[in-house]
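Quick one, tokens below. Sequence please?
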């Protein structure tokens, strides 16, 4: 996120009046940049990651851990430190000849939660393989610098959510009473959100537009002693301060669900995002489409979110909770009431999996597109008239069905075509699992694609591994011209599947059988391939249903051969008739690719440790953070087998995570240095070589 403009934010009734103006100016700005940038060529293959942190308070003798709400002070301290390269934070570099880092100091950004922080590298990473080895030390450097600008008892940790956010009692430092005018939450105070006017306005206007509070209901995990049916014991049915207090009396909190009622429960989650710059528009559109079907797979593989509001959930990932936490659809748009005031029924929240493919690739069959896509025909017409092609016009005409939520009065004076603020207003509040980012107004950088589904991982080793893996997969896609297309509806289904507990091991996902289409000349995957890549007879016009099948993540990531060898006793259902056909697997493809290019031995070995983590995560040899946290809770002496994650467990979990961070910072990737933390780590990491 860029610098946050200051101004007078309109309340919802006023903002609604201006929505049309913002959309129409946004489209003009989009066309301006489109016409300026559509022919851009030869932009460099750059990429960058974003790591989000929770800031917690922890000290050895304190029985409580809390969320620190000092985000503004911490950012201030970071901003006023000119050097940002404290001696104590010299990055621990990997073995062997060290890449010369040309990185400026990292950049720190605010986030929705006042207990959050985001850090990006000082400048995007380049195409050199050696640079991939700088990512992990740089992530460690960021964490160290962040810690250096905090109080001694504050720590940046990379859990996706704070286990007791919204639990009764005290969970923030400082404490604020719940139920303020903006969020009207009975569980979290308004002060939980970043105080910049944009954030409380975003939350308030989503609530207002929707006509009631958001409803974030997560199925509770049913343990041996969980009373059943289970009623969320933290819900208060007797509040009468705001009209929205009626929500729970009107059925907002069903049995067997953990009930949450504010944007902070979703947007207060941390994720790992990767942005790629394409060489031109065509390549950007290709990357957007081809990475899209990988979204749910990577979500399941990075699962890290098993606890909400002090209870174990029956899901492992954050995605749907964020989706519900910012769902601003009205009862009419949701289909609960006949359409009278609103323009259409909208099947998805503005935070949801992608609804469009955008490439003009001939391999994109119309059957893959979403038959339920809602677009604003009027906006599409303007884009077509402005020279944009049908497919991309459809994409933006879909994003522009949404209202702008936060509008600053000062921005409505005149249209400035040297800016993209109105376009970005709509674009950046469409939170889909991929984002197609046009160049900024000054056209200084290229067309970019952002991969957004991954959950943040506890260690920087893991965060680097997943970042590097996605970079390598992207290179493989481009250099082998791979085809991952499946119908968007199947990607949606996969996204739901990814939520299941341990989906990585117990579920199957729709995935394309043949990544090498015969309808298009595919380049050779390189000579010295370690794994032969099967070729398949062309089936260019067969039924679409024949192009994909259900696969385990082990098969998708490691290939069928490896999967057969590693899942003999796993819980994945027995393969059906046609389901034991060969699939090469993404890691073998990455390895073929690495074989086909020039990578020095040291770099290749380091990359292998990252690939090993992904491989073992997919096969179940290593655990997801979600599984690890469940295990931690289950064996904790204070756990009563009743799904409740109390203060002591939370405190000890955060302590373990802080210690893992310290032990990782001590370098050498845990070898022998982590003492009693070793048993905690060994299920999570491949770092014990
Ligand atoms: P947002 O929050 O809107 O996704 P950020 O500015 O926080 O965007 O970060 C996006 C990421 O993109 C960062 O890692 C940054 O280093 C990276 N990045 C910046 N410029 C480019 C570029 N030209 N190509 C690829 N990545 C870039
Ligand atoms: Mg960002
Ligand atoms: Mg952002
Ligand atoms: Mg962010
Ligand atoms: Mg976020
Ligand atoms: Mg981002």
């Amino acid at each position: 996120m860029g610098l946050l403009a200051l101004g007078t934010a309109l309340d919802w009734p006023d903002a609604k009046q201006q929505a049309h103006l913002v959309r129409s100016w946004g489209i003009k700005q989009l066309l301006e940049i489109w016409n300026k940038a559509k022919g851009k060529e030869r932009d460099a293959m750059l990429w960058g990651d974003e790591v989000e942190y929770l800031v917690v308070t922890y000290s050895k003798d304190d029985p409580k851990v809390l969320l620190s709400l000092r985000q503004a002070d911490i950012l201030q301290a970071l901003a006023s430190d000119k050097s940002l390269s404290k001696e104590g934070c010299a990055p621990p570099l990997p073995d062997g000849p060290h890449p010369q880092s040309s990185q400026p100091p990292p950049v720190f950004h605010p986030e929705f939660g006042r207990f959050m922080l985001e850090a990006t590298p000082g400048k995007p990473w380049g195409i050199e393989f050696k640079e991939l080895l700088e990512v992990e030390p740089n992530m460690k450097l960021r964490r160290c610098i962040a810690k250096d600008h905090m109080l001694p008892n504050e720590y940046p940790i990379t859990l996706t959510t704070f286990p007791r956010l919204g639990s009764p009692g005290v969970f923030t430092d400082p404490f604020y009473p719940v139920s303020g005018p903006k969020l009207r939450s009975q569980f979290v105070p308004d002060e939980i959100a970043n105080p910049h006017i944009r954030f409380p306005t975003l939350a308030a206007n989503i609530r207002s537009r929707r006509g009631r509070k958001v409803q974030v209901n997560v199925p509770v995990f049913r343990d041996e002693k969980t009373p059943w049916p289970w009623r969320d014991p933290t819900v208060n049915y007797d509040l009468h301060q705001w009209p929205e207090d009626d929500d729970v009396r009107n059925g907002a909190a069903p049995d067997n669900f953990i009930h949450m009622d504010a944007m902070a429960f979703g947007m207060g989650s941390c994720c790992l995002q990767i942005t790629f710059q394409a060489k031109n528009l065509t390549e950007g559109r290709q990357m957007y489409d081809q990475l899209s079907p990988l979204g749910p797979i990577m979500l399941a593989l990075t699962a890290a979110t098993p606890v909400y509001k002090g209870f174990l959930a029956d899901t492992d990932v954050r995605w749907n909770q964020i989706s519900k936490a910012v769902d601003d659809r009205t009862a009419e748009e949701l289909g609960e009431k006949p359409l009278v005031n609103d323009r259409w029924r909208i099947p998805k929240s503005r935070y949801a999996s992608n609804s469009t493919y955008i490439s003009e690739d001939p391999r994109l069959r119309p059957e893959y597109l979403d038959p339920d896509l809602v677009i604003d025909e009027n906006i599409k017409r303007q884009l077509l008239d402005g020279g944009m092609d049908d497919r991309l016009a459809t994409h933006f005409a879909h994003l522009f069905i949404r209202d702008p939520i936060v509008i600053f009065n000062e921005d409505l004076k005149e249209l400035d075509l040297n800016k993209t603020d109105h376009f970005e207003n709509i674009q950046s509040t469409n939170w889909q699992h991929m984002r197609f980012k046009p160049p900024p107004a000054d056209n200084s950088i290229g067309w970019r694609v952002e991969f957004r589904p991954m959950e943040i991982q506890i260690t920087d080793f893991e965060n680097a591994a997943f970042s590097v893996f996605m970079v390598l997969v992207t290179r493989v896609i481009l250099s082998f011209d791979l085809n991952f297309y499946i119908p968007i509806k199947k990607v949606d289904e996969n996204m739901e599947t990814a939520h299941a507990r341990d989906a990585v091991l117990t579920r199957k996902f729709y995935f394309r059988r043949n990544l090498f289409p015969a309808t298009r000349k595919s380049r050779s995957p390189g000579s010295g391939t370690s794994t032969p890549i099967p070729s398949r007879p062309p089936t260019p016009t067969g039924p679409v249903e024949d192009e994909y099948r259900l696969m385990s993540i082990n098969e998708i990531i490691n290939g069928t051969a490896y999967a057969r060898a590693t899942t003999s006793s796993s819980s994945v259902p027995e393969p059906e008739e046609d389901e034991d056909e060969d699939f090469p697997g993404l890691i073998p493809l990455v390895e073929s690719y690495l074989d086909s290019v020039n990578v020095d031995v040291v770099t290749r070995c380091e990359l292998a440790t990252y690939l090993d983590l992904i491989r073992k995560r997919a096969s179940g040899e290593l655990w997801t953070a979600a599984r690890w946290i469940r295990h931690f809770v289950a064996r904790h002496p204070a756990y009563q087998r009743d799904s409740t994650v109390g203060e002591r467990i939370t405190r000890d979990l955060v302590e373990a995570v802080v210690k893992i961070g310290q032990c990782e910072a001590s370098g050498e990737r845990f070898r022998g240095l982590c003492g009693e933390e070793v048993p905690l780590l060994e299920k999570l990491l491949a770092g014990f070589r």
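Residues 460-682 form one domain. The first helix runs from residue 12 to 37.
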